[in-house]
Structures are given as C-alpha cells and as structure tokens.
Design goal:
about 700 residues, Pdz3 Domain, 2-enoyl-CoA Hydratase, Chain A, domain 1, six-stranded mixed sheet, about 40% helix, about 15% strand, globular
C-alpha cells in the first residue's frame, strides 16, 4: 500500500447501501428514428405490475394517486439534477405539467412524459459539457479572488443559460485548480479535463431506454421508503453475480455521488476489509491496473464502467486514487493498492482478542468478540452438515475459549455490522438471555408475530459483565441483538446511535410473473413488507438503538442513517410482549458514565479523537471554495500542519517521539480508541460486580 497523504479521517467501515445509477450500456438502446430514447412496451408492463405489487404488498399499502405522483416528480428531478447544475427554471416549470399525471402513467398509460423529461435533461447536460470544453481553450486566471459554490442542492434553479455559464466557468476553473495544486502544467490539465468531459459526453450517449426507466422507477419506489427499489434486467444480473460472490474484486459496494463513484460500504472478509485503508464515503477519482499501470481518471464515469475497471483476475493488483471521506476540499488525493480476491466466509467469521488493563495494581482481562455480520451457511445446513458455519456457533466457541483464558468481562463488537440472517440475531441473543422473546415482526396486514430464543432450554453461554459496542453503521440484525441485550438489562450498550433500519424487504423476480417474447427480461423489485419491533413494543426503525453510554464518532449521524432519509418509515410502537428483564441498570450506567467521563479528560487518544471529529465537522459544513490558488494552497498547507500538530500533541502526551511529516505515520500502530474506551468501561463494570459480590467470592489473582 502506498502511503500518500493522511488517511486517518474516518474510523469506520460501512453499511452497504444498494444504490445503483447509470446502469450498463446495451447495444439495443431503445432509440427511435429521430435518435431519441423512447419507452418500450415491456416497460409499461413492468410499471403496471409494480403498481399492483405496491398497492397489495408494500407495508404501508400505498395508494398510487396524485399525492404519490407529486412526490415521484420531486424525486425524479432530484435524481436527474440533485446539485442543480444542468436544468433551468423554465425546464422545471415545464415538468410541473406532469406533477399529477405520473401515477396514471405508471399504472396504465404510455411512459412518454418520463422520456420527454429525460430528453430535456440530457440536452442540458450535453450543453453544459460542450460549454466546459470551450473553457479549456484558455488557462484560467488563478489569482482572481472569487468563491465557487460547489454545493447548490438548496440553491434556486438557474433562470438562464448565461447564469449556468457562469456557474460552469467556475466549475471548470475549480477542476483545473485542483490539478494545478498538484503542480500539473496547463497542457496536461487541458488533456485530463478534456478527456474527462468528452468521456462523460460519450457515456451520456450510451444511456438506453432501460436506464431511463430504471431511474424513474427508483424515484417511484423511493417515495415509498428508502429500501424499496427496482433493478433493470442488466442490473438484476449484476446483483446475482455479486450475491454469488463468483467474481474477483476488492470487496466494496459502490454508488454514484454526482460526478464521483464513492464507497458505500466495505464487505466483511474482502480484500478492502483486510487492508483497512479504504473507508465508506471515500470517492474514487482514478483506477490503475497493476503496480505500474496508467492511472485512468474516472470522474464522471458510469458506475458499472468503474466497477469493470476495479474487477479483474484473482491475486492481481488494482490501484485506486481516492479523495478520503471528510477531507477538506482540494486536499491531496490518496493512493491505495489492493490485491483482488474473493470474499471468503471464514474471513467474515467472528474473531476474538483479549485486552489487558492495569488499574490500581490489579490486572484485568477484557475479552472482545468482533461480529462483522450475522451469517449462516444454509447450504451446509440443508445438506445435513452438523458443523455448518454460523455466527452463534462461532461466538459460543469463542466465549468458551476466552473463559478458559480467564476474562473478567466481555465486549461484543458490532461496529459496522450491517446485519444478516434474522435467525442468527435471535440465536445470538439466546447466548446471553435465559429464555424469552427477542423481536416482534409486523406485516402489511397488521399481523404481529414473535421470535423467541430458539434454544430456550440451553444455559446462557456467558453471564459475566457484558457490553455491546455499536456505531451508526450497526444496522438491522445488529440492532435487534443490541436492543434485546438492552431491554433485558443484560448488558450495557456503548457507542453511537445505530442506523435505524427496522424494516423487512422481499425481492420479487419479475420474470416469474410475466413472459417475455425475447430474452430482455423484466428485472426485479425489492419491496418493504414489514417492520421489526423490540420486546418493549418500540420500533428500531428510524431511531435505531440509543446507547447507554455515548462515545464520540467520526460517522456523521446528520448525513448517515435512516433518520436523514425523507421517505423513511416512521418510528412507532406495538404492544409490549411479555418478557422477564433483569435488574434495571440505570444506577450502574450513571456510575459507569461518570467514571468514563472522568477518565477520558486526561486520555490523549480520546482528546485527539474529539479534536479530529470537530475538524471533520468543520470541513463538512463548507459549501464554497476559494478559486485563488494562493489562498487554496495556504488553506491546504494550514490543514496539513494542523493535522500534524494534533498528531504530535497526542504523541508527546503519550511519551512518544513527535513526527516530522504525516507520511511517517504508521496506521497499523494507531490504537482503536473507541474499543479501548469500551474496555475501560467494562473494567469498571467488572470492578463493580466484584465489589458487590463481597470478599468471600471475589476472584484473587
């Protein structure tokens, strides 16, 4: 791995979001004789079928009416031009003609209005890129003091082409300035940006009718909730390939974000997870093959084209040029080398370690079990293999091994665990609670079912001091487990408010419901059909699980999580189910919190973490950039110096030698600050339990 720049701005790996955009090019593009895209009959058939599914099977039993149509139009416009860089106010005003017609269109009428709106958008994009190319004829003056507003998502639509020209003049100047800051000569900048804009134009011309239909149907589905979606036949096949893990790649899910392809999540057990350098929200700007291959600029590329570059034969190297998440605008890019490989089940398995803590002359041993996902090898199970792999079996074995080593407390680390098999969430909960219900499910008919500990007669696997460590990327099955531990007062939840995904989805392969006269297919629909509820009756949807003790996190909950999505289903409650909770922990949690706060005041690593989070929040709040090269260079140098100063302040406080450069930092030596804080809290918990048990039963070492 090449260390260029400073990568330690985020401390998390991801919750994989299934977001697809700019689907793959097909030679059968759906163009009519005039050269414009047009809907096909099968698109209308799919629209009708999806409408039927939504009205009958979606959790909310949504009515496809004028109100829904209005929401679909807003989301479709946002999907086309979220940053308001292409469309004019007059275009948006014209689209208003269809505000209350889209429900009728998708139910039974031709989809021509959808394709007409896309045609207008496509024309505007082509105009902007052609204008951008003309701006490369003359080198910009980098000495002018002016500001470029790169975030226009809440700005008014431009009212004229001249107004957009000015926005794009600054956009091109900013693109050029980013390269000029790397000491690139103007001739090279012209070539790089020329290829970038021309490439985007080529990919714009490759869009086919399935692409347009998929984008519209996703706007339609996302008005229902964030997890309902539609995939075209081409992307349905891509999804199947990914789920079969029959390809070699880096083990990361990708999605588009404006001109960039960014990391949506890191897949446990894959090359990216093993390397640890790539983080969610990192944006990919270039891809190169092998150690010496040419770096290909991929800004503005289609998602699938970038995926094709990243994939390749096993054990080969792919190099990524990225803009790290939360980095300051214009910050240096980072190079990461990854060796392609398959995602291996054994590498996704739970792992354990022991943290030794010395306190007041006493040594404490805190066990840690990291659970990256809730997995179960159903193929082996169905074949009668009693040694099938599962999260619960692995954790039970690890607990036994740790207890043989003599641990005083246990942390179950669910950070970045995006979920998995529901059966494993209930079974894992059963290792820590005696017996009883774990989670409730409500379907679209309002029927509530209850899932209990699947092995109620078995003894608990561990009954000592327990904490569950979570963050914003702990989702779904992770939230079910954490909620059960909290509701039964079995342990303390530590970390950050979890993601808040408390819904259940079903996948419908539409080919099973319709016959095609050709081999094009109809794609697939993912639809939300139910919600999870805690044994207390409270939903995990939207709110997630609130930790008993909050730790600082680099993950910005204002932009990540279910609660930031406009169409997220609301939090609500059902009736509490009968369960037997342990003794309330409120007094214990109050005491643990006070000890943690007092201890953290003098912890250099903790103070460093808080300082870095504050710096990242300041960067995230920026919406404009200076287009003066001296100002930008000064801002970059100041930011790098501040990072170095923060790092050296931490090192001096720990009795370590200060560094001369950020490039001297060894990421592998940096502590897991949140895990260390959690270990300190569990040590407090173990001390409290030992004191409460009295001298007769206290463990002597």
């Amino acid at each position: 791995m090449t260390k260029t720049g400073y990568r330690r701005l985020t401390w998390f790996a991801g919750f994989a979001l299934a977001t697809l955009a700019w689907p793959a090019f097909s030679t059968n593009s759906g163009l009519d004789d005039s050269g414009f895209l047009h809907p096909e009959r099968r698109h209308e058939q799919v629209g009708e079928l999806i409408t039927e599914f939504i009205q009958k099977s979606h959790y909310n039993r949504v009515a496809v009416d004028d109100e829904l149509s209005s929401n679909v139009l807003d989301l479709f416009i946002e999907a086309l031009d979220r940053n308001r860089m292409y469309l004019l106010q007059g275009d948006v005003d014209y689209f208003e003609t269809y505000r209350y017609q889209l429900d009728d269109v998708v139910k039974s009428k031709p989809l021509d209005p959808v394709f007409e709106m896309f045609e207008i958008y496509q024309t505007r994009v082509r105009e902007r890129l052609q204008f951008a190319l003309t701006q490369l004829e003359t080198e910009p003056d980098y000495n002018v003091d002016e500001e470029y507003q790169f975030d226009r998502s809440e700005e008014p639509w431009a009212r004229s082409s001249a107004e957009l020209d000015e926005i794009w003049r600054q956009r091109v100047k900013n693109d050029a300035l980013n390269l000029a800051l790397e000491a690139e000569p103007w001739e090279d900048i012209q070539e790089v940006l020329g290829k970038r804009y021309e490439g985007f134009l080529r990919r714009l011309d490759q869009v086919n009718s399935d692409d347009v239909f998929e984008r519209f149907m996703n706007a339609f589905a996302h008005t229902l909730d964030p997890h309902s979606s539609y995939m075209s036949p081409r992307n349905s096949e891509e999804y199947r390939i990914q789920m079969s893990l029959s390809y070699f790649g880096i083990g990361a899910s990708l999605q588009t974000d404006g001109y960039y392809v960014k990391i949506a999540g890191i897949i446990p057990g894959g090359p990216a997870a093993a390397d640890g350098s790539l983080k969610p929200e990192d944006r990919i700007t270039g891809v190169a093959q092998g150690a010496d291959g040419e770096m290909v600029d991929v800004i503005g590329w289609r998602l699938d084209d970038v995926v094709d570059l990243i994939r390749g034969p096993a054990d080969t190297v792919v190099r990524l040029e990225i803009i790290p998440a939360n980095s300051a605008p214009g910050a240096p890019k980072t190079l990461i080398d990854l060796t392609r490989g398959q995602v291996k089940l054994e590498e996704q398995a739970a792992k354990s370690e022991v943290i030794d803590i010395s306190r007041d002359g006493r040594d404490w041993r805190i066990g840690v079990i990291e659970v990256p996902s809730f997995y179960r090898d159903y193929r082996a199970l169905s074949n009668g293999d009693k040694n099938y792999t599962s999260t619960t079996k692995d954790v039970k074995r690890l607990i036994s091994d740790l207890e043989k080593e003599g641990i005083d407390g246990l942390i179950v680390d669910l950070r970045n665990n995006g979920g998995g098999h529901l059966t494993e969430a209930t079974a894992l909960s059963g290792l820590f609670i005696d017996n009883g219900p774990v989670v409730q499910l409500r379907n679209s008919n309002g029927r509530i079912s209850r899932l209990d500990d699947p092995d109620p007669v078995a003894r608990v696997a561990y009954n000592g001091p327990l904490a569950v460590l979570v963050n914003r990327y702990s989702a779904s099955a992770s939230e079910i487990f954490a909620a059960a531990i909290q509701d039964y007062a079995r342990g303390v939840i530590i970390g950050q408010q979890t993601f808040g995904k408390g819904t259940v989805q079903n996948l419908y392969s539409l080919d099973q419901y319709m016959r095609s006269s050709d081999d094009k297919g109809f794609g697939q629909l993912t639809l939300t059909i139910g919600k999870y509820y805690r044994v207390t009756g409270e939903s995990t949807q939207h709110r997630g699980v609130d930790p008993d003790i909050v730790l600082p996190s680099h993950i910005n909950a204002k932009i990540i999580g279910e609660s930031v999505r406009d169409s997220a289903l609301p939090w609500d409650t059902v009736q509490t189910t009968r369960f037997r909770a342990g003794k309330p922990l409120s007094d214990t949690i109050e005491s643990l919190t006070a000890s943690y706060v007092e201890r953290s005041r003098d912890d250099p690593n903790y103070l460093y973490q808080v300082d870095m989070i504050q710096a990242a929040e300041e960067v995230s709040a920026q919406k404009t950039l200076s287009l003066n090269i001296d100002t930008r260079r000064s801002e970059r140098e100041d930011e790098l110096q501040r990072r170095l100063d923060r790092e050296n302040e931490r090192r001096v406080a720990l009795g370590l030698e200060p560094l001369a450069s950020l490039d001297d930092i060894d990421d592998d030596e940096f502590p897991d600050i949140l895990l260390d804080q959690a270990a300190g809290i569990v040590t407090d918990l173990a001390e409290m339990r030992e004191i409460a048990s009295g001298p007769a039963t206290a463990q002597v070492r």
